[in-house]
Amino acid sequence: MANLGAICYKSVKAGLYEQWSASMEGDDSAKAEVWRTEGRQAMLESLKARLTAGDVAASRVAVIQGSIDAAVEQKVNDVLEKHTLTMELQKVTPLKQRISMLEGKEEMIKLLQKQTDLLQDTVKSKEAVIDTLQKELDKQKTANTKSSHAIGKVGEATVLSMIQECIIPVFPFSRVEDKTGVGHAADFHLWTMPSPSKTVKILIDAKKYKSAIKMIEINKLHSDMDNDDDAQAGIMLSLDSAICHFNQFEIGTTPKHKLVMYISMEGMETAMRATTLAWAVRVLTSIAGETDIEKQKTMILNIELFIKEIDKSVKDMDGCIRMCSKTLETMRATKEKLFTRLTNYKNGSLVESGADEDVEKPTDGDDGKCKKVKSDGNNCGYRAQPGVEYCKRHI
Fold first, then answer.
1. 207 inside domain
2. I want to staple 362 with a disulfide (CB 3.0 to 4.6 A). Which of 15, 168, 271, 329 is the partner?
3. pTM for the full model?
4. What is the CATH number of the domain that holds 252?
5. Which residues of the chain, if any, have pLDDT below 70?
6. 316 is in which domain, residue-wise?
7. pLDDT value of position 352
């Protein structure tokens, strides 16, 4: 009903007011107008109080709103500051780590720099020592080279002198060329004529070494011979040492089947050296001058058999010499004993017969090594042949 009345009032409000205004009298209208004015005034007063209260409330609300805004702003600022600090801390922690790492790297770099400086100083000192040692080594090498070169020149001059004085006059139409300054050509080229229609070229390589001649030097002579189409024979001549892998006066061949004789003149006298070289040239000339290969082989075989027989004879003679040496030592010991007995008899201190020791038997002192004394004063050192005191090179 109330709702219905409210709805009807809205539609009939204007009409009812017009009817009420028309039915009222003048006094009533004036009163009504007064009442309306008073009502308006009362309403305005009440509204004014309310407006004043509303303004106070609005100001309080504004104050509260301001405080709330300030609090919110402060809170927001605090949160933002905290968040910013958190972000900054998150950025600072890696920076601290990097800074600590950089500081550690700087310390490490300083240590490495110190170590590098120390190493550089050490290297410089070592380089100085190495330079000094290298200079000394170069000096020694130069001195050794000059010494070896000078010794080699002396040996070459000795062999050339033997060829010119003992070979050329004996072999008619022979000649020699000095090739010591030419590479890959041996030391001397010697031409001989075993017959009027035949010429033999012999290459001679002379070495004056303190140690034995090794295969590398022998192979060089073989290469020089095989590269010389005119060469038919060669001689490896060692003046003061032995020759490795080859016996004295052994005749071998190069890869191209050219004849090579190996001769060691260690310990030989000057006259014997010249005679030995002349004999070697004569043998090689005779063999190389033979055109029949089978006859050459027979000649080489006969020479080898002859040298073996000579070796046997030398061994027999050496055995006789050793026996004579033992007998001589025994006689010397007996002589010394006799002098001792005579002296004791003269002094009246002769002992009873048989009381003294038997005559001391001399020992042969054979320790299995060659007894030959080289030009430098040292023993040969090679194993002696059975029953003799010398090796194959010095029998």
1. yes
2. 329
3. 0.48
4. 3.40.1350
5. 17, 20-32, 91-92, 95-96, 141-152, 349-367, 375-377, 392-393, 395
6. 293-341+359-395
7. 53
